[in-house]
Amino acid sequence: MTTLLEHRYRAGEMHRFSAAGEQFVYLPQAGAIFALDEATDGVLGLLGDGVAAHDDLVAALTGQGMTMADAEGLLRELRMVRLVEAENVVARAPVVDTPPDDFPLQALVLNVTNQCNLACTYCYEFGADKISTQTGKTKYMTPETARAAVDFLLESAKGRDAVHITFFGGETLMNFRLLKEAVAYADARAAETGRRVTYSLTTNATLLTDPIIDFLAEHAVGVTVSIDGPEKMQDARRVYKSGKGSYAVIAPRLKALIARHTTRAIAARVTLSAGVTDVVGIYHHLKHEIGFHEIGFAPVTTTDDGHDFGLNGDGMSAVLAGFNALADEWLAYALRGEMHGFSNVSETLSELVVGTNKSHPCGAGLGLLGVSPSGDLSPCHRFTDADDHVLGHIDSGVDQAKRSDFLTRGHVGAKYECTSCWARPLCAGGCHHEAFVRYGDTGHANLHYCDWIRGWTDRVLDIYGTLAVKNPEFLDRFADRKGLS
Q: Does residue 198 sit in helix, strand or coil?
C-alpha cells in the first residue's frame, strides 16, 4: 500500500550553476548536466532544503498553465534522473566494486630506463616510496623484457582491437634503441592478430636528434615534453647534474620536433612549483614562441618532508587565477569556433561531455599498468621500482589479490570524505601516488586538493554551460574531434 510519506519529495543531490544567463544542474550520481527550464526550476524552488507534498507540486505546476498529465510526467522524469526523490528514500551506501580478474588491459607504460641525464629538483623518481629500494635495480630495460611486455599486453587485452604503449623513464630517449625494437616487435605481433598498437612517449627533449624525430613521425608516436616554460623558469629546477640549465639545449630541438613531426600533436607538460607559477606567461611562451599544440599544467602541492618546491595555499591560489585567465581565453576561442591549446580545460570538458563518473581517479591498476626495467608490474609509472607496490611480473602475470586490494582501497566509495562531494565523478579522490606520498595510503583522498578541484570543475562547468547556450555546435565538433561521440 502506498503511504502518505511516499508522496512527499525532497531535492536530490545536485550542484547548481549558472552560465550565460541560464540555470543548470550537475548531478554527481549520474555525472550528468541538465539545463533547467522554468517548470523544473520552480519545482526545485518549492522544495528548497525541505520537502513538499506531491499534490502541492502538481498544483503549483498546473497553476502555471501545465496540464495535470504534463505535471505528473515532469515529476516522474525528475524522479528518474534523481533530481527529486521521495522523502523516505534512504541514501544508499556507496558500492565499492572491483573489476573482474580478467578485466582486459588497454595500455602499458614501459619504463625503459630509470636513469636520467637531468637532475630536476622535484622529480618523484627517487621519492618517499622508492628511496630505500633503488639499490640493485635494473637500470635499462632489455629487448627480452620489452618483447615479453608486448606479449603480456596483447594477451591481456582480450577483446580490444587496439592497445597503447607509452614509453617512459627516467629519460626515455636514453634507451631509444630499445624503443625502436619494441615498436617493430609490437607492430609485427599486433599484425598477426589483426590488432593495432598506438604509441606515445614522454621526454625532456635534451636527446632529440633528426633521426629520432623522423622515427617518431613515421610511427605516429605521440610526444609529450616535460618543460617548465621560458629559460628562467625552465632553468630554475630542470637542470643537469652539474646545475646547468637545460633550456638552451632543448629550445632548438623542440622547434625541429614540431616542424618535422606532423603526424601527431606535440604536447607540453609543465610542472608548476614554488617560483614557477606564471601560468599565462608560460602558456604563451610555449604556444606562440616554441609552437606546442597543447600545453597542460600540473602543480606540485606542499609536502611535509622539508622540500621547498611545493606550492602552498597562496601559490595554489595564484595558479588557479592563472588557470582562470587561460580558461577565459579558451572560451573566447571556442565561441569563435576555434580550438585553444590549454589542455586542462579540454581534458575536464571532455569528461563532462561524456558524463564521466569515475570509480577510481585514473586507469592505474584497471586498464593500465606500469612495467619497470626489470619487468615488475605496478599500478602505473609513478609506482615503478617501488617494492611495496609491485602487482606482479610480466612473466608470471598480475597478482590479483594485490591488484584487488589496491583497487578496493582506491575506489571513491571507500573514501568517506568523497561521498558527499559533488565533484567526485571527475576526481574520485585524486592521484593514488600523491595520496601515498602525502598520507602513506594509496586509498586516501587527497584532501589538500579538494578546494582546488571543486573550484576548477566549477569553472569548466561554466564553460560547458556558456557553449551550450551560445555555440552548441562547437560542443558537438569538440566531441567529434576528441572521439567522444
A: strand
Which residues, at least 6 apart from 244, have a Cβ–Cβ distance to it below 8 Å?
none
Residues 53 and 113 both lie in one domain: no
- Residue at a domain's end among 366, 400, 434: 400
Identify each DSSP E strand in 72-150 by its residue range. Answer: 84-86, 107-111
**Domain containing 11: what range?**
4-86
The answer to whether the CB of 238 falls within 8 A of the CB of 245 is yes
Residue 456 placed within a domain: no
Mark whether 78 and 126 lie in a shared domain. no
* 61 and 121, same domain (yes or no): no
- Counting residues of the chain whose pLDDT is more than 70, the rounded percentage is 92
Q: In this structure, are 62 and 185 located in the same domain?
A: no
Q: Is residue 226 part of a domain?
A: yes
Q: 64 and 117: one domain? A: no
* Per-residue model confidence as pLDDT tens digits over 177-222: 999 999 999 999 999 989 999 999 999 999 999 999 999 999 999 9
Q: What is the pLDDT of residues 287-336, one digit of tens each?
A: 999 999 999 999 887 554 555 677 777 788 889 899 999 999 999 999 99
pLDDT in tens, 413-439: 999 999 999 999 999 999 999 999 889
Q: Which of 56, 86, 116 is the last residue of a domain?
A: 86
Residue 266: pLDDT over 70? yes
Do 139 and 218 lie in a common domain? yes
Domain count across the chain: 2
Same domain as 126, residue 209 = yes
Tell whether 123 and 265 lie within a shared domain.
Answer: yes
Residue 182: CATH number of its domain: 3.20.20.70
